[in-house]
């Protein structure tokens, strides 16, 4: 049995990229009888200032989203990162094994710190080390993530190997699991950049909360190109390839079948049908999310239970780590 782990930041803007990049692959792995962990990384979220009331709301919302997506708490340990203090404890130890140069090379740090000069927080810089701790605490074999997180998982691999070399075999060296299609959903307004919750314009993404009018408007205004037929050509026609990928993910039809079906139907029909497919996919999902949100106390109980289970695992690893580094007397 493999151990599978992934995590997402709590945000009110969880989008279809997050869903298809990380949640959907975990759902598949959950059904294969693995030991699964899914958690809400609230300590990662505060590396960028967050309004406390909003953060709290987003943690609850994320819990509802995972349950609505099909996370089964009997098969997956679902919890909130900050409830398991071993994450920050291990992160400190790993900080002492990680080089500044490694963190300076992280492309996400470069992107997020651009133009911020001296005011970038230490937390934003050290964020990949906390992520390594998240992964290594649970002896994780596979980490389903979107493409943008692969560099961070690779750093976790390097840190695990370094620790094992220095202190003896302790951590499993994890592997990223990236799906062949959907690991990098691009922005609807700019197919050269990934769909992102922090994008300036909401026209960049389809949020899991968007209502049907939003979805129709956003798809209508999505960038395409000046050609007249539909074909799948990610290199030369990235905008259209992205829309075909989304269409395929929500309908479970193959990209090639969709490209053939819409080849000569024109962009208007293609976009109209894509919008309707998205609406039909989102509507029942949103109804489920709203159902879960009606009972916040139950969501909190789910997180309490998850934290209890995660704590046991995390503490087993930490006991070994404390002994290995020589702080247990
Ligand atoms: P986050 O919250 O930014 O994103 C959550 C997941 O969504 C994926 N993703 C995408 N996939 C496809 N297309 C996109 N446009 C797209 N945008 C985002 C991300 O790759 C990610 O899998 N640092 C992580 C959270 C984290 C984590 C971990 C993940 C913390 N600890 C341990 C795995 C294991 C993050 O900020 O993801």
How are the strands ordered across the major sheet? 1-2-3
Radius of gyration: 21 Å
Mean pLDDT across all amino acids: 95
CATH topology of the largest domain: Rossmann fold
Q: Label the structural class.
A: mainly alpha
Helix content: 55-70%
Instruction: Identify low-pLDDT runs.
Output: none
Bound molecules: tryptophanyl-5'AMP
Detailed description of the structure:
The chain has 329 residues and is mainly alpha-helical. The protein has 2 domains: 3-178 and 296-325, HUPs (Rossmann fold, 3-Layer(aba) Sandwich), CATH 3.40.50.620; 202-290, Tyrosyl-Transfer RNA Synthetase (Orthogonal Bundle), CATH 1.10.240.10. It is built from 13 helices and 5 strands. It has a 3-stranded parallel β-sheet. α7 crosses α8 (150-167). The longest helix has 30 residues, at 296-325. The protein is globular, with a radius of gyration of 21 Å. It starts with a strand and ends with a helix. Tryptophanyl-5'AMP is lined by residues 5-9, 17-18, 21-22, 41, 44, 131, 134-135, 143, 145-146, 148-149, 152, 183-185, 194-195.
List the keywords.
329 residues, mainly alpha, Rossmann fold, Tyrosyl-Transfer RNA Synthetase, 2 domains, three-stranded parallel beta sheet, globular, binds tryptophanyl-5'AMP
Write the layout of secondary structure elements.
Blueprint: E1 3-8, H1 16-30, E2 35-40, H2 42-45, H3 52-69, E3 76-80, H4 86-95, H5 100-104, H6 107-113, H7 122-136, E4 142-144, H8 150-167, E5 175-177, H9 212-220, H10 238-251, H11 255-262, H12 266-293, H13 296-325
Parallel strand pairs: 1-2, 2-3, 4-5
Bound molecules: tryptophanyl-5'AMP.
């Amino acid at each position: 049995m493999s151990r599978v782990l992934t995590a997402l930041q709590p945000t009110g803007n969880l989008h279809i990229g997050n869903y298809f990049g990380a949640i959907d692959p975990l759902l598949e792995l959950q059904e294969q009888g693995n030991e699964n962990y899914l958690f809400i990384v609230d300590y990662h979220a505060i590396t960028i200032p967050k309004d406390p009331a909003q953060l709290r709301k987003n943690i609850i919302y994320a819990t509802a989203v995972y349950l609505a997506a099909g996370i089964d708490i009997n098969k997956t340990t679902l919890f909130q990162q900050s409830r398991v203090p071993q994450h920050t404890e291990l992160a400190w130890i790993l900080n002492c094994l990680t080089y500044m140069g490694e963190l300076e090379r992280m492309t996400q740090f470069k992107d997020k710190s651009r133009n911020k000069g001296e005011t970038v927080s230490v937390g934003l810089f050290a964020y990949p080390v906390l992520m390594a701790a998240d992964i290594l605490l649970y002896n994780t074999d596979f980490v389903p993530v979107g493409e943008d997180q692969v560099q961070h998982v690779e750093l976790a691999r390097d840190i695990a190997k370094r620790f094992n070399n220095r202190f003896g075999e302790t951590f499993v060296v994890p592997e990223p699991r990236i799906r062949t299609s959907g690991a990098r959903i691009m922005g609807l307004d700019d197919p050269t950049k990934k769909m992102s919750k922090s994008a300036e314009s909401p026209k960049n993404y389809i949020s899991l909360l968007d209502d049907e009018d939003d979805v129709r408007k956003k798809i209508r205004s999505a960038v395409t190109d000046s050609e007249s037929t539909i074909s799948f050509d990610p290199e030369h026609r990235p905008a259209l390839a992205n829309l075909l990928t989304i269409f395929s993910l929500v309908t479970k039809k193959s990209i090639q079948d969709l490209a053939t079906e819409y080849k000569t139907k024109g962009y208007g029909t293609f976009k109209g049908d894509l919008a309707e497919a998205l609406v039909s996919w989102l509507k029942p999902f949103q109804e489920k999310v709203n159902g879960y949100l009606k009972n916040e106390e139950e969501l909190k109980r789910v997180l309490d239970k998850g934290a209890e289970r995660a704590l046991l695992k995390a503490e087993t690893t930490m006991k070994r780590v404390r002994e290995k580094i020589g702080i247990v007397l």
